[in-house]
Amino acid sequence: MAALSVQDFVEQANELLDDEALGVAVEVLGDPGDEGRELIFTAHGDKEKFTVVNTFVSTAPDLQCFSRVIGFRRRTGEPSFEIRMDDMTWSASDYRVGLFKDGGLVGLELLVNRRVPHDMIDASKHAAFIMLDHIIGEYDFAVRVGAVDFVDHLSVDEPWVCSLEDLPRNFDRMWTESLGRTGLWPQKMTWAMLAFPSEVEGEAPLVVSVNRSAGALATRADMAYCLDVVMEVFDKPSLQRAQDVEDLLRQGMESQQASIMVASIMDRTESTRTCRFYLSDPRENKVKLDAICRGSGVEPQITVAFDPSWDGYFEFTD
User: Fold this and answer.
1) Which of 10, 130, 198, 285 is the most buried (most CB within 10 A)?
2) Lowest mean pLDDT: which of 1-15, 47-61, 218-232?
């Protein structure tokens, strides 16, 4: 393996991966013999394949010809680069970007800052998506970016307008300062009670208690799983039991700060109360969860979904 050129290694590795895990590929950063050479698994921005990438990385053996194995393309250190496509060259300086808040994520308006022939409009958009993947990184682009709108005029306020080359700095500033996604465990939990009317006439509204403070942790890569604990509630005693279990779950699941409860959902139409958590390893946490539920006499329904963009949280908050 070490004797292969980078191109030969990548081609042979991807031929194997094409059979084993369609949609996942490898890339190499560095030349043979380089100290710090990295093997990168990528899903080309497809979130449905992110768990496959994570599995390859977590189970990778020690490879002497690579300093480490990582998941997802990192940000390029040189955002001023060019792409040649359909006989035209596109560079990062060809685009202006406006950043805006979009459902808890960062939305982008893109303006092509040069004359584009009508038959090259699609190519200009394709080139922009490739650049975004490299400039802000595969994970951030797939998970933390919401809408991407190509516009003729930017409608975003000037402080949030920049060149594509300067996007990483402005993206991080909006993410941490404007949206408050610090990635740090909240010192205090602030909850808000919300009611969502049913679309069916005569049905009771969905009542949700939302952990506003959990937004600081939203989309953290080590909290990419959404776990729902659904308990039946059909009278006052069963409601009290569900509330007691909810308190125990919060204490037990959050004790190591590896998971956080983001919402308590009361659905009177379905007669259920749901505790929603975001966490790292659902298998490890399920052991803890089962122990808590066994001691309380409650037999909940438990569902787990890979949700790196925290859609199950933002549906109640933004």
Assistant:
1) 285
2) 1-15
